[in-house]
Design brief:
With about 325 residues, the chain is α/β, with parallel strands linked by helices. It is about 35% helix and about 15% strand. It has 11 helices and 10 strands. It has helices spanning about 5-10, 50-60, 75-85, 100-105, 120-130, 150-155, 175-190, 200-215, 225-235, 245-250, 315-324, and strands at about 20, 35-40, 65-70, 90-95, 160-165, 195, 215-220, 240, 255-260, 280. It has a 6-stranded parallel beta sheet with strand order 7-6-5-8-9-10, with helices on both faces. α1 runs parallel beside α5 (about 120-130) and α7 packs parallel to α11 (about 315-324).
């Protein structure tokens, strides 16, 4: 979710260099951004623990950093930015709006309203450092050329491509797989090509089984690296995802993204970037008025275990077909 914000920043502040600090596997997300370099944090190795973070701080100091924008605001980043603060480096950090989010997810006296988006909160960090930043008119990269390895899996593009990413961190955020298979069945019958996305051994096995059931359906999970996966996503005509990472991958590339929401809700601020509200498919909020009952999907209200089943496969198919 930081990518479109940093992209806008580099365009509007071209004389400022950004160094993105994160885990090494995320480097491809930032590869096409101008004036951005990536620094890998080895938090499981040499940068582990307090002494490891101090070592990381000393390494970063050599880059002559003028300001620190903490877009995470967790214990590890708090410690790191404190080292910078003690060395008189200007710092700013994201305000997550925890009280607002508690009010939004409360079962009593719920305050049901759209909160500031996480993208806006990221932008606020840069603004508090004194920079101008407007994320309301984004620019997106063009569709990327696909490698021979990817084309050997997908074939040449001769029809509309729909990405489907059916998994999420918590079951409460996942559309039931039996219903998702009905969605895939109906879409594949219309001669769209369905590309399945996921990760991890168990997900790959499940997606392989689904791909074998339906025509025009291919599982790409586990077959290509992240760089190729992002290039492939850029060529999609639509991504269907849960409230999860693949939705954000597609949105940052300017791909139309349809999201299915369970006990979470776009009002929490975690909707994909620049996607209209109508692209979010929600459960029956009259039957389940306590939605959202969780920000991240890790807490389920009693009796809300099956809220996703209030969304029919037909609603999802109709939404996507109308787009295409």
């Amino acid at each position: 979710m930081t990518v479109p914000v940093i992209k806008a920043f580099t365009k509007q502040n071209p004389s400022t260099k950004i160094t993105v600090l994160s885990r090494a596997f995320l480097k491809p997300l930032f590869s096409d951004l101008n004036n951005v370099t990536f620094y890998a944090a080895d938090v499981g190795g040499k940068h582990k623990g307090l002494f490891g973070l101090y070592k990381l701080f000393k390494e970063l100091q050599s880059l002559n950093i003028d300001a620190v924008a903490d877009l995470h605001n967790v214990l590890r980043s708090k410690i790191l930015r404190t080292f910078f603060k003690l060395s008189f480096t200007k710092i700013a950090f994201i305000i997550k709006g925890r009280k607002e989010k508690r009010d939004l997810t409360a079962t009593k006296n719920k305050v049901f309203k759209q909160l500031k988006t996480t993208h806006e909160r990221y932008a606020d960090v840069f603004k508090s450092l004194g920079f101008h930043l407007d994320i309301s008119n984004p620019e997106f990269p063009s569709k990327q050329l696909l490698s021979e390895k990817v084309l050997n899996i997908t074939g040449e593009k001769t029809t509309k491509w729909i990405g489907v990413a059916p998994f999420a961190q918590y079951n409460s955020k996942m559309y039931p797989l039996d219903l998702m298979e009905q969605v895939i069945d109906q879409l594949s019958a219309k001669d769209y090509k369905i590309l399945l996305f996921g990760g991890g051994e168990n997900e790959i096995k499940i997606l392989d089984k689904i791909a074998n059931k339906f025509p025009n359906t291919i599982n790409v999970a586990g077959k290509i690296k992240l760089t190729d996966e992002l290039n492939l996503i850029s060529n999609l005509d639509c991504m269907l995802s849960m409230d999860s990472g693949n939705a954000h991958f597609a949105a940052m590339l300017g791909v139309r993204t349809v999201t299915i929401w369970g006990i979470t809700h776009p009002f929490t601020g975690f909707a994909p970037f620049n996607q209209p509200f109508e692209n979010a498919i929600l459960p029956d909020l009259i039957k389940y008025p306590n939605i959202p009952c969780s920000i991240y999907g890790n807490k389920v209200c009693d009796g809300y275990e099956n809220v996703m089943r209030s969304i029919s496969p037909g609603i999802i198919v109709h939404k996507i077909v109308n787009f295409l």
